[in-house]
Amino acid sequence: MKKFLTLLIAAFAVNMATAQPPMGPPPGMGRGGMERGPRKTPVERIAGLVEELQLTPEQAEKFAPVYLNYQGEIRKIRQELKMLMDGYEGKEIDEKLAFRMVMDQLNADADIIACKKEYMRVFKSYLTPEQLSKIFLVEKHANRPPGRPHGVPQGPPPTGSPMQN
After folding, report:
1. Domain ranges of the chain
2. pLDDT at 107 > cutoff 70
């Protein structure tokens, strides 16, 4: 396993050297300036997932490059959405613009879901059902602020029905 991790680190060192700087808040800061843990490098995230999913060396060898491609595609979709939203900054929001902004967000969400479904089919070819189910759950909860237990909503509960006017 040490041999594999060494190989993994060496392989991704080149990838990290050509990576773009992260977008968003500075490292260690979450949205709204909330303190978060230090950012993990792609190698650290992969190593953590290999451990969390208890992958065999053969599985890890297949998983690492595919997972990096998956993360890159998700990042690209989010960056494109951010660029679209930045383009709306400073404009007066009327009904037409509000609709366009919401549609851009929904289209990006649909692209992310389609990407996840596509990669789930790839991961399914060499991961167990238990490992497969954990991939997206681990990823989803990795961004939860520290100290907030699983299942606890972030804000006050919604009131009324979304269909009420």
Report:
1. 2-15+39-142
2. yes
